[in-house]
Write a structure and sequence with these properties.
Oligomer: single chain
Strand content: 5-15%
Structural class: alpha/beta
Distance between the termini: 97 Å
Helix content: 40-55%
Shape: elongated
Amino acid sequence: MNPLKALFPEQGQAVWLDFVARGFVLDGKLKALVDADGLRGVTSNPSIFEKAIGGSQEYDAALKSVMDEGDARVIDLYEGCAIADIQAAADVLRPVYEASDGADGYVSLEVSPYLALNTEDTLDEARRLHRTVARDNLMVKVPATREGIPAIRALTADGISINVTLLFSVETYEAVARAFIDGLEEFGAKGGDVSKVASVASFFISRIDVAVDKALDDKIAAGSADKAPLEALKGKVAIANAKLAYQRFKSVFSEAKWQALAAKGAKAQRLLWASTGVKNKAYSDVLYVEELIGPDTVNTMPPATMDAFRDHGTVKAAIETDLDGARAVMDGLARAGIDIEQVGDQLVDEGVQLFIDAADKLLGAVAGKRIDFLGPKLDGQTLVLPEPIAAEAKKAVEAWRASGAIRRLWAHDKTVWSNADEDKWLGWLRIVEDELAHVSDYAAFADDVRQTGFTDVVVLGMGGSSLGPEVLAETFGHRDGFPTLRILDSTDPDQVRETEAAITLETTLFIVASKSGSTLEPNVFRDYFLGRMKAAVGERAGAHFVAVTDPGSAMEAAAKADNFRKIFYGVKQIGGRYSVLSAFGLVPAAASGIDVKAFLDTARTMVRSCGPAVPPAQNPGVLLGTALGAAALAAGRDKVTFIASPGIDTFGAWAEQLIAESTGKDGHGLIPIDGEPVDVPAVYGLDRIFVYLRLDNRADARQDEAVRSLEREGHPVVHITLANEEQLPQEFFRFEIATAVAGAMLGINPFDQPDVEASKIETKKLFDAAEASGALPAETPLFSDDTIALYADPKNAGALPQASDGLDAALKAHLGRAKAGDYVALLAYVARNPKHHAILQDARVALRDKTRLATCLEFGPRFLHSTGQAYKGGPDTGLFLQITADPSEDLSIPGRTLGFGTVVAAQARGDFSVLAERGRRALRVHIRGGDVEAGLKRIAAALKAALA
């Protein structure tokens, strides 16, 4: 009989294998070991699966077959492979299990090491694995951490067989043994059959000698007086410790409490010697087998150790030999100043981290294979980062991995950020899955809209309620049989009139979108168009309106009072800028004929790619976020400049709000730059990081070449590639995760918007006063003529004495205040239409080309709910030119004493007031007389002249 096979019949020690792999089981090699060597069990751990799955192509066919049926989460792909292997191995060992009456024949599967420090999560996971594997001869592995020991007791009380892992200390072992006994006693008290529960306590061996030998070498190197006694302890401690643990085993399981359970058929929790492969080549390769042979024990060996013992091992009783010598070794260790309990605690911590590291590598490998199998179904991402940005980004990625930050983010851990109230604003993480459960509601709504024959659907909203739907309208376009999707997010009376002129009221559906229901703009939009609709269709007006709002809001109450066609509800735990994948984006999508299920399925591909089980190095959201954060922190490149292919070029306006409103606060932040046409490197400063969203089926060759030139000149570029427009939903989620990650790097709360609220308060104060008095307070200009007036607060006025000389002088002096690394923002409170945009865009590009400064062109009041936060709360690097205008004609609002002209004027003044309060460099140019186009041309000409 070979030594391996002799261990059990001759000495009562079961041999288990510390290895599992698919081919090994399916090819019959596991069964061959059972037959030839008397193998009685199998253990696994993340390191084993990492080598099996990540280190070969053995599992590719299985993974591909799952992906061919559709997408799956990374954790589910891994578990699908692991559980199938565990089940197959358990089936091979089933005869051993039955022949031993449930003493042996087990296969062990480890609870995720990420849960090692959380009792309740460990319990949930262990119970789930027990149910899913569905094999009597499964042992669930639970680590002997402080949090793990209560779980071991509770799981045993459930009748689940447990393999307790990461034991190094005799005292901890006793706590584990007693937890097992207490749990088994409770199981029996509930009527459970205690004979059906088994357990092993995995006592790690070689790692102790590695740690202690190093500590001894350190003491020797430090010049300890007695070198010889220290040398004599090397290679002895692990075995001595194990022998004393075995004596503790005998003591605990001889007590009356255990004997009462044993009388009912209970099986003692055996000590299992783990980590028995020798790490020090100076020691015998069978040292940790031969010296630990004894009854009622298990030795789980890696394949190499099994081969060695089969070849030249000696079978003899050893575990109770020379116990005095074992005690002397441990006493000598204590005299040397090395505390074995402290060593054990350190090894538990290290063991958990080693398993976490292995799990990260394993899941990273699975994530990489998933990406390969998805191919073009997943939007691509490539980072071209020069130094020092690349090094800083790499460091940040590793910090996120080591701290488990992406798992903590998904677990709503507010300490990822500023430890404020961030945990209350993370409903967007799971909104795609939540909304997929309601796709039938959106489909029914879409059918209702189509069958009713609406020709237009108009979203009345601001910020997150309008910018996402605008991207959908521009990207997906008009769908046959469905109405045209339009957006109104400006209180400029000319803009309101333009919107009304483009539709037929009787065949239009209005979507009033407001989370709180108290935002000024959606309320005045509703008042105006509801009044117009009542005049057109009478009492049926409410049937032309749908509300999207949070439960319990003032908008909900108003919608019910006015008999709106339908009310859709948002999620209170989702801020407006993160709401595009919720009802705020999906209701307009459904109304315009976009297939909501397909839309969400596409988004889910990115959700899964950015999930909690995807390590940072393979997680596209984390990679983008750390790149943006590193660029800002390591190189001062905080101007996130968007370049986008035709067809998806409105995406930047949505991302602009997300990034600016999330990160621009407390003097920090990223400044998004949208709408600048890409050009040669010479027109850019060294404060840019470029994000190129490339649509493969509509790529612009000129953009491609310009981006290559930027890379050659050393600018950082993020390449994001989409196979077609239908995959744009993925980008909403990628950028949401990336923004949350960048916010964490900047040390801010990415979910509040304190300065937006300040503008709202100031605007409300002005508008309420105007409604009471009949007009806004009078102002004194710094300069005025027939078509232009200039305004500023006292501080800015003092910095611009030239303003009294007129527009040209004022703008030249104002632009002269800018310095390298600044940005210039044109904030136009006028109708946003192609003519106005073209005039200001021309001046904007000229300004960038001449000064190399980043430029922003924004239309008010919509930017107040977007980039306005960063302009007021972010870094003090902005130079602001606010443009306001007398409307060609005001437009009254039903139920209010003042019209839209007063609303937009109050918003502009409120905006400027907060800019001034924050000490920003700002000047306001007001166009008088109502000829807005002529006034804009004059301002643009003056800007160009100022650059000469």
